[in-house]
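Hey, I'm writing a tutorial for new members on how sequence and structure tokens pair up, and I'd like a real worked example in the thread rather than a made-up one. If someone can provide the structure for the chain below, I'll link this post from the tutorial.
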Amino acid sequence: QVQLVESGGGLVQAGGSLRLSCAASVRTFSSYTMGWFRQSPGNEREFVAAISWNSGSTYYADSVKGRFLISRDNAKNTVYLQMNSLQPEDTAVYYCAARLSADTMYRYWGQGTQVTVSS
């Protein structure tokens, strides 16, 4: 059983920064590729970033590349999303997700944390 809990969301002005955290309750955290997704009202869920089990590979959506940084601390069973130069378009509920490294689909999801960026 995998449980994911996001934190760190909030209200920030355009140009500001936030760091999201995702704490995983899982026996073997290092077995999972971790990802971040987001969804704003009326829009489909979109991929934001992902990181492999050993941090050897990272992936970013074009919309956040150069501004966001995903990282993980396997000793703490935690994945982070550092978000810089935030813009109103980044406003969304951000979800942490996990999948086994050999899988192609994310199987486990957190409840989400709200990020609101004001102009």
